[in-house]
Amino acid sequence: MLFGCYHQTFAFLRRLGRRTAFRLQAALTVPFVDEEGRRSELRCPPLPAPWHLLGGVLDWEVLPIGARVSALRLARPIRIAQRQARGAGSTRPPPRPERPSPRGCG
After folding, report:
1. Neighbours of 4 (CB within 10 A)
2. Could you give the CA distance from residue 12 to residue 95 in angstroms, rounded to a whole number?
3. pTM higher than 0.70, yes or no?
């Protein structure tokens, strides 16, 4: 399971003066090992969050094609949630975490 619970962590690290001690991936890449020991990597394309994760799932070869297509159903709820988040007190999206200059991914 992946979570985007890092905004407060980065704020805490900045307060400690240690934010630069950590390097972020330019593009999300997560290695996996399945129950039978087969390895795979979820690699996300150069899209803004959370679309990069949806793109990575769609291209992840270990998932059956039906599961990948089912992931497309997430697009509408993601758009709705983004609109609701922007409408809940601010017209601006939440700040993005600091990232190195990407090789194409954000």
Report:
1. 10
2. 15
3. no
